[in-house]
Amino acid sequence: MRLVLLGPPGSGKGTQATRLKEKLGIAHISTGDLLRAEVAAGSELGKQAKAVMDAGNLVSDDILLGMLRSRLSQPDVAKGFILDGYPRNVAQAEALDGVLADIGQPLDAVVQLDVDADQLIERLAGRAKEQGRADDSPDAVRQRLQVYTQQTAPVVDFYAERGTLARLDGIGELEEVEARIHAVLPKAG
Ligand code: ADP
Protein backbone atom coordinates (compact mmCIF):
# COMPACT_ATOMS: atom_id res chain seq x y z
CA MET A 1 0.00 0.00 0.00
CA ARG A 2 1.39 3.37 -1.05
CA LEU A 3 -0.56 6.19 0.46
CA VAL A 4 -0.44 9.98 0.79
CA LEU A 5 -2.16 11.46 3.84
CA LEU A 6 -3.18 15.09 3.33
CA GLY A 7 -4.61 17.53 5.83
CA PRO A 8 -3.98 20.85 7.51
CA PRO A 9 -1.59 21.19 10.46
CA GLY A 10 -3.31 19.69 13.49
CA SER A 11 -5.60 17.46 11.42
CA GLY A 12 -4.11 14.33 12.96
CA LYS A 13 -2.04 13.11 10.00
CA GLY A 14 0.92 12.15 12.15
CA THR A 15 -1.20 10.29 14.69
CA GLN A 16 -3.15 8.39 12.05
CA ALA A 17 -0.02 7.62 10.04
CA THR A 18 1.59 6.06 13.11
CA ARG A 19 -1.47 3.83 13.60
CA LEU A 20 -1.62 2.87 9.92
CA LYS A 21 2.06 2.01 9.94
CA GLU A 22 1.47 -0.48 12.77
CA LYS A 23 -1.67 -2.01 11.23
CA LEU A 24 -0.40 -2.26 7.68
CA GLY A 25 3.27 -2.94 8.39
CA ILE A 26 4.44 -0.20 6.04
CA ALA A 27 6.88 2.69 6.41
CA HIS A 28 5.76 6.04 7.84
CA ILE A 29 7.55 8.88 6.08
CA SER A 30 6.95 12.20 7.84
CA THR A 31 8.86 15.04 6.20
CA GLY A 32 8.32 17.14 9.34
CA ASP A 33 10.00 14.39 11.44
CA LEU A 34 12.84 14.07 8.91
CA LEU A 35 13.42 17.82 9.08
CA ARG A 36 13.22 17.91 12.89
CA ALA A 37 15.83 15.10 12.98
CA GLU A 38 18.15 17.23 10.83
CA VAL A 39 17.61 20.20 13.14
CA ALA A 40 18.30 18.05 16.22
CA ALA A 41 21.46 16.64 14.61
CA GLY A 42 22.66 20.18 13.89
CA SER A 43 23.38 19.35 10.23
CA GLU A 44 23.88 22.06 7.63
CA LEU A 45 20.45 21.25 6.20
CA GLY A 46 18.93 21.42 9.68
CA LYS A 47 20.47 24.83 10.27
CA GLN A 48 18.98 26.13 7.02
CA ALA A 49 15.58 24.63 7.73
CA LYS A 50 15.11 25.65 11.37
CA ALA A 51 14.27 29.35 10.97
CA VAL A 52 11.93 28.61 8.07
CA MET A 53 10.09 25.93 10.05
CA ASP A 54 9.86 28.02 13.21
CA ALA A 55 8.22 30.81 11.22
CA GLY A 56 5.67 28.35 9.83
CA ASN A 57 6.87 28.56 6.23
CA LEU A 58 7.78 25.83 3.76
CA VAL A 59 11.36 24.61 3.47
CA SER A 60 12.60 24.71 -0.14
CA ASP A 61 11.30 22.16 -2.64
CA ASP A 62 14.90 21.18 -3.53
CA ILE A 63 15.78 20.24 0.04
CA LEU A 64 12.55 18.28 0.43
CA LEU A 65 12.98 16.43 -2.84
CA GLY A 66 16.51 15.38 -1.93
CA MET A 67 15.36 14.13 1.47
CA LEU A 68 12.42 12.30 -0.04
CA ARG A 69 14.47 10.57 -2.73
CA SER A 70 16.95 9.38 -0.17
CA ARG A 71 14.21 8.11 2.20
CA LEU A 72 12.39 6.32 -0.64
CA SER A 73 15.58 4.48 -1.55
CA GLN A 74 15.69 2.72 1.83
CA PRO A 75 14.74 -0.97 1.88
CA ASP A 76 11.75 -0.75 4.27
CA VAL A 77 9.87 1.27 1.65
CA ALA A 78 9.50 -1.82 -0.55
CA LYS A 79 6.62 -3.00 1.70
CA GLY A 80 4.76 0.25 1.06
CA PHE A 81 4.59 3.64 2.73
CA ILE A 82 2.45 6.42 4.13
CA LEU A 83 3.63 9.90 3.18
CA ASP A 84 2.77 12.45 5.85
CA GLY A 85 3.62 16.11 5.16
CA TYR A 86 4.52 15.69 1.50
CA PRO A 87 3.47 16.94 -1.03
CA ARG A 88 2.74 20.39 0.39
CA ASN A 89 2.44 22.33 -2.86
CA VAL A 90 1.62 21.46 -6.47
CA ALA A 91 5.30 21.50 -7.55
CA GLN A 92 6.00 18.84 -4.89
CA ALA A 93 3.02 16.79 -6.07
CA GLU A 94 4.42 16.84 -9.60
CA ALA A 95 7.91 16.00 -8.34
CA LEU A 96 6.50 13.09 -6.34
CA ASP A 97 4.86 11.69 -9.47
CA GLY A 98 8.25 11.76 -11.18
CA VAL A 99 10.12 10.06 -8.33
CA LEU A 100 7.50 7.33 -7.96
CA ALA A 101 7.46 6.74 -11.72
CA ASP A 102 11.27 6.39 -11.62
CA ILE A 103 11.09 3.67 -8.97
CA GLY A 104 8.00 2.06 -10.51
CA GLN A 105 5.88 2.51 -7.36
CA PRO A 106 2.81 4.64 -8.13
CA LEU A 107 0.40 5.74 -5.40
CA ASP A 108 -2.55 3.53 -4.45
CA ALA A 109 -4.49 6.18 -2.55
CA VAL A 110 -4.57 9.80 -1.41
CA VAL A 111 -6.60 10.50 1.72
CA GLN A 112 -7.52 13.99 2.92
CA LEU A 113 -8.46 14.58 6.58
CA ASP A 114 -10.89 17.50 6.82
CA VAL A 115 -10.93 19.47 10.05
CA ASP A 116 -12.34 22.99 10.38
CA ALA A 117 -10.12 25.93 11.31
CA ASP A 118 -11.52 26.48 14.83
CA GLN A 119 -10.85 22.89 15.76
CA LEU A 120 -7.30 23.06 14.30
CA ILE A 121 -6.42 26.16 16.31
CA GLU A 122 -7.73 24.53 19.48
CA ARG A 123 -5.78 21.30 18.88
CA LEU A 124 -2.54 23.11 18.04
CA ALA A 125 -2.84 25.32 21.12
CA GLY A 126 -3.21 22.14 23.21
CA ARG A 127 -0.15 20.60 21.56
CA ALA A 128 1.86 23.77 22.12
CA LYS A 129 1.32 23.35 25.86
CA GLU A 130 2.18 19.64 25.84
CA GLN A 131 5.13 19.51 23.45
CA GLY A 132 6.45 23.05 23.23
CA ARG A 133 7.15 22.86 19.49
CA ALA A 134 8.54 26.20 18.33
CA ASP A 135 6.17 26.29 15.36
CA ASP A 136 3.10 25.88 17.58
CA SER A 137 3.37 29.50 18.78
CA PRO A 138 0.26 31.55 17.85
CA ASP A 139 2.08 33.47 15.08
CA ALA A 140 3.59 30.35 13.55
CA VAL A 141 0.27 28.49 13.72
CA ARG A 142 -1.46 31.35 11.92
CA GLN A 143 1.23 31.30 9.24
CA ARG A 144 1.11 27.49 8.85
CA LEU A 145 -2.67 27.61 8.36
CA GLN A 146 -2.27 30.36 5.78
CA VAL A 147 0.45 28.42 3.94
CA TYR A 148 -1.86 25.41 3.99
CA THR A 149 -4.74 27.35 2.43
CA GLN A 150 -2.59 29.02 -0.19
CA GLN A 151 -0.17 26.26 -1.15
CA THR A 152 -1.38 22.88 0.09
CA ALA A 153 -5.13 23.13 -0.54
CA PRO A 154 -4.44 23.17 -4.33
CA VAL A 155 -2.74 19.77 -3.91
CA VAL A 156 -6.12 18.42 -2.79
CA ASP A 157 -7.62 19.67 -6.07
CA PHE A 158 -4.67 18.21 -7.99
CA TYR A 159 -5.49 14.69 -6.76
CA ALA A 160 -9.27 15.24 -6.89
CA GLU A 161 -9.02 15.98 -10.61
CA ARG A 162 -7.31 12.63 -11.12
CA GLY A 163 -9.98 10.80 -9.16
CA THR A 164 -7.45 9.35 -6.68
CA LEU A 165 -8.68 11.35 -3.70
CA ALA A 166 -10.80 10.28 -0.74
CA ARG A 167 -11.91 13.04 1.64
CA LEU A 168 -12.85 12.18 5.19
CA ASP A 169 -14.16 13.92 8.26
CA GLY A 170 -11.12 14.14 10.56
CA ILE A 171 -13.17 15.02 13.65
CA GLY A 172 -14.04 12.30 16.13
CA GLU A 173 -12.33 9.68 18.25
CA LEU A 174 -8.96 8.46 16.93
CA GLU A 175 -10.44 5.00 16.34
CA GLU A 176 -13.38 6.40 14.40
CA VAL A 177 -11.15 8.44 12.10
CA GLU A 178 -8.87 5.44 11.65
CA ALA A 179 -11.83 3.25 10.68
CA ARG A 180 -12.90 5.86 8.11
CA ILE A 181 -9.44 5.72 6.56
CA HIS A 182 -9.41 1.93 6.37
CA ALA A 183 -12.86 2.01 4.76
CA VAL A 184 -11.60 4.04 1.78
CA LEU A 185 -8.28 2.25 1.20
CA PRO A 186 -8.18 -0.07 -1.79
CA LYS A 187 -8.25 -3.71 -0.69
CA ALA A 188 -4.84 -5.43 -0.81
CA GLY A 189 -4.23 -8.00 -3.51
P1 ADP B 1 2.26 20.10 10.61
O1 ADP B 1 1.56 19.18 9.66
O2 ADP B 1 1.69 20.06 11.98
O3 ADP B 1 2.41 21.51 10.09
P2 ADP B 1 4.87 18.84 10.05
O4 ADP B 1 5.62 18.13 11.10
O5 ADP B 1 4.31 18.07 8.93
O6 ADP B 1 3.74 19.64 10.85
O7 ADP B 1 5.79 20.01 9.40
C1 ADP B 1 6.46 20.95 10.20
C2 ADP B 1 7.20 21.96 9.31
O8 ADP B 1 8.21 21.28 8.54
C3 ADP B 1 6.36 22.70 8.26
O9 ADP B 1 5.68 23.82 8.80
C4 ADP B 1 7.44 23.09 7.25
O10 ADP B 1 8.20 24.19 7.69
C5 ADP B 1 8.35 21.86 7.25
N1 ADP B 1 7.94 20.88 6.22
C6 ADP B 1 7.46 19.62 6.45
N2 ADP B 1 7.17 19.02 5.28
C7 ADP B 1 7.45 19.91 4.30
C8 ADP B 1 7.35 19.90 2.89
N3 ADP B 1 6.86 18.84 2.23
N4 ADP B 1 7.74 21.01 2.19
C9 ADP B 1 8.24 22.07 2.84
N5 ADP B 1 8.35 22.17 4.16
C10 ADP B 1 7.97 21.10 4.90
From TrEMBL:
<feature type="binding site">
    <location>
        <begin position="57"/>
        <end position="59"/>
    </location>
    <ligand>
        <name>AMP</name>
    </ligand>
</feature>
<dbReference type="GO" id="GO:0004017">
    <property type="term" value="F:AMP kinase activity"/>
</dbReference>
<feature type="binding site">
    <location>
        <position position="133"/>
    </location>
    <ligand>
        <name>AMP</name>
    </ligand>
</feature>
<dbReference type="InterPro" id="IPR033690">
    <property type="entry name" value="Adenylat_kinase_CS"/>
</dbReference>
<dbReference type="InterPro" id="IPR027417">
    <property type="entry name" value="P-loop_NTPase"/>
</dbReference>
<feature type="binding site">
    <location>
        <position position="31"/>
    </location>
    <ligand>
        <name>AMP</name>
    </ligand>
</feature>
<feature type="binding site">
    <location>
        <position position="144"/>
    </location>
    <ligand>
        <name>AMP</name>
    </ligand>
</feature>
<keyword id="KW-0067">ATP-binding</keyword>
<keyword id="KW-0547">Nucleotide-binding</keyword>
<feature type="binding site">
    <location>
        <position position="36"/>
    </location>
    <ligand>
        <name>AMP</name>
    </ligand>
</feature>
<feature type="binding site">
    <location>
        <begin position="10"/>
        <end position="15"/>
    </location>
    <ligand>
        <name>ATP</name>
    </ligand>
</feature>
<dbReference type="InterPro" id="IPR000850">
    <property type="entry name" value="Adenylat/UMP-CMP_kin"/>
</dbReference>
<keyword id="KW-0418">Kinase</keyword>
<feature type="region of interest" description="NMP">
    <location>
        <begin position="30"/>
        <end position="59"/>
    </location>
</feature>
<keyword id="KW-0808">Transferase</keyword>
<comment type="pathway">
    <text>Purine metabolism; AMP biosynthesis via salvage pathway; AMP from ADP: step 1/1.</text>
</comment>
<keyword id="KW-0545">Nucleotide biosynthesis</keyword>
<protein>
    <recommendedName>
        <fullName>Adenylate kinase</fullName>
        <ecNumber>2.7.4.3</ecNumber>
    </recommendedName>
</protein>
<dbReference type="Pfam" id="PF00406">
    <property type="entry name" value="ADK"/>
</dbReference>
<feature type="binding site">
    <location>
        <position position="92"/>
    </location>
    <ligand>
        <name>AMP</name>
    </ligand>
</feature>
<dbReference type="InterPro" id="IPR006259">
    <property type="entry name" value="Adenyl_kin_sub"/>
</dbReference>
<comment type="similarity">
    <text>Belongs to the adenylate kinase family.</text>
</comment>
<dbReference type="GO" id="GO:0005737">
    <property type="term" value="C:cytoplasm"/>
</dbReference>
<dbReference type="GO" id="GO:0005524">
    <property type="term" value="F:ATP binding"/>
</dbReference>
<dbReference type="GO" id="GO:0044209">
    <property type="term" value="P:AMP salvage"/>
</dbReference>
<comment type="subunit">
    <text>Monomer.</text>
</comment>
<feature type="binding site">
    <location>
        <position position="127"/>
    </location>
    <ligand>
        <name>ATP</name>
    </ligand>
</feature>
<feature type="binding site">
    <location>
        <begin position="85"/>
        <end position="88"/>
    </location>
    <ligand>
        <name>AMP</name>
    </ligand>
</feature>
<comment type="function">
    <text>Catalyzes the reversible transfer of the terminal phosphate group between ATP and AMP. Plays an important role in cellular energy homeostasis and in adenine nucleotide metabolism.</text>
</comment>
<keyword id="KW-0963">Cytoplasm</keyword>
<feature type="binding site">
    <location>
        <position position="172"/>
    </location>
    <ligand>
        <name>ATP</name>
    </ligand>
</feature>
